Amino acid sequence: MMTNSARAVAAATMAALVVAGCSTGQDEPGETRTPRAASPIEFNLPDAQRYHRLATYPVYMNKPAEEPVEMETVAEISTVTPDGNTVIYTDAAAKRIGFLDIRDPAKPVGQGTLSLAELGNADDQPTSVAAVRDLVLVVVDTTGGNFTEPSGRVDVVRVSDRTRVHSIDLGGQPDSIAISPDGAFAAIAIENQRDEEATPPGGEEGDLPQPPTGFVQLIDLTGEPSAWTPRRVDFDVETARAAGLDTPEDLEPEYVSINSRGQVAVTLQENNGFAIIDGRTGEVSQIYDAGSVAVEGIDTAEDGAIDQTGSIPQTPREPDAIGWIGDDHVATANEGDWKGGTRGWTIFDANTGEVVWDAGNSFEQLAVRTGLHIESRAESKGPEPEGLAITEIGGRPTALVASERSNFVAAYDVSDVTAPAFRQILPTTPGPEGVLPIPARNLLVISSEADEAENRVRASVTVYGYGSQYAAAGGPAFPSIVSGDVDGAPIGWGALGALSADPADENRLYTSPDIAVGPARILGIDLSTTPALIDTALPVTENGQPVTLDVEGVSARPDGGFVLAVEGEDGPGNQLVYVAADGSIERRVGLPADIASEVGGQGLEGVAVDGDSVWVAVQRELKSDPEGVARIGRYTPEDDRWEWFGYQLDSTSAEGDWIGLSEIAVHDGALLVLERDKLNGPDARVKAIYRVALPDGPGVTSAGETPRVLPKTLARDLLPDLQATNGFVQEKVEGFAVAGDHRLYVVTDNDGLDDANGETQFLDLGPANEALKG
């Protein structure tokens, strides 16, 4: 039975097709093609007006040599020495800080770590860092899980020899630190965070109040560090209550920022507010309610579909990071906590507390149109904007807002605070939290806090450089593929694992998301734009209803319609699915029973229509076949006949790794087969297209027969292409096609952001006769 969500997706997609005039590229003679979906955003910026990704440095590479590779190690908040050459980051997971040499920003060099065990206790955790002069202030949480007796300190460490020259008791559990632009003082948010498992009298688990309340510490940075002492700033409970904060007896300061006047802006996240403090006198001048907002046109159901018909009612913003835009406005990233989160960011007048602009649904829409929407967080807080920094680019104030869950940083020109202009989206590794502009060098450093060692998706420091001076060292522009909008909403997509040429248009391709982004749809790609544009979405239907299929391969038929390679949860679920030009399923062709019984969890991955034959690639070996030999199948629809040939996989020595096939195509009288390992990042070894001669005789017809192994030759090693992006090398390079324009295109499957950083790389590798060897 089709769920309400599935009906909504089907209705929305069908409406998109009607409104946008989406055709499948096979117009009848004399038919006039109607406009397709268009992008409302100009992503194709000149080199001089954009950030270029220079390097992605996984911080496990900076760990002590004796630690195992799989040990969790992260980079959360970072700072840079005044000369702009050394990045220092916090690693709470490993309870240390790390040092990274970025004199050559395209080649960061790890300079080791400093364990907090050397400064205090092995259970101490760094929460933030800030460099000043030849020192770094390391903010340390020493609470150790005792929420009713929070404690912390700031260690003043000399960068050159990493020795502590002073330590200051903060009187509570700290979070962020900021240093005034003139270097005169530091401000530290003392959060004294709540215990999410505690239940206060009359409340529910995790509720406030949970004393003690938080405050702010100010530290004057004049004279010798040994003389530095804190000045505590408390908040008046009744003033906070009058401002609209609902639990003012338990404020939890989260994030601080300081303007040129020495005013400190501090968020009070769990109380949905922020305050302004005079940093020189310690006077709290204003406390503001951050307010609530209703948001429409977002995905609010975790049902496997990108359904943007949802909404949230008036919801507290609960801001996390805050930054000054000039001296009169502040911007907040509205991550939310236990009561709220509005999936965007806001600009406030710091003198009145009034909202001058709010992102509404635009931040989440940005994630959708770039394939970075995270379906598993739809019912929670969506992209979760958490980190934020304000810098100046080309004389214009720029806001940089980080999405914790969708793994990107978005840049906005905020010259007009009432109408920020989106400029660029920058992909990151999972959990970007620290956003560190280095204006003197036109650099941007992004540190990420999520480390999934079991999936080899590692926390990293990513370095970007702004302007044409970094263009030569930078990788290809991101995004390389986006979706157009229909009725103000972008076409939802992700997990692209299949590509096919459009037989009727040399400037178009077809693709299809796999089961991570359902129900099944066939998407049309316009290659004539930069970035490439998904401008059509054709629902796959059966008996008039949308269906969910794990589509791993798609091939457009010259006479209209498509053949899909569908991978099942088990062998019998693997099928060829014939789809008409209108998206309706014409028939399903299952594998022969004996073959199906031998296919495990990795089955059909690619499909190619070649005249009267259909070629398929099976990802892994059949259970009874020789180890390392996968199967290539040839299906002849006329007599419903299957034949099988062998394909010798490359070998791998990495623990837990395996190699398999991901795509197949027929080109220039031969088969092209995409082979990859399961590794990513620095570990990736096998990502390649091989050429296989079309067999001159029949293949075997049963699982019990050992197939003849077809010889293969390397046509293109894709690893250098993936590395050239300067990002985290993607595991799942899963689709390729030679389009009608005779160019070779390759796409990576982002797994819908599950166990992956979510970046989709759509690579134009140039004329196929030059891109492919032999």
From TrEMBL:
InterPro entries for this protein: Mesenchyme-surface_protein, Phytase-like_dom, Quino_amine_DH_bsu, WD40/YVTN_repeat-like_dom_sf
Phytase-like domain location: 492-751
Lineage top rank: taxon: Bacteria
Claim: Signal is one of the keywords in the record: yes
Signal peptide: 1-25
PROSITE patterns, sorted: PROKAR_LIPOPROTEIN
Keywords, comma-separated and alphabetical: Signal
SUPFAM superfamilies: YVTN repeat-like/Quinoprotein amine dehydrogenase, YWTD domain
Pfam family, one: Phytase-like
Protein name, entry field: Phytase-like domain-containing protein
The organism's taxonomic lineage, starting at the top: Bacteria, Bacillati, Actinomycetota, Actinomycetes, Mycobacteriales
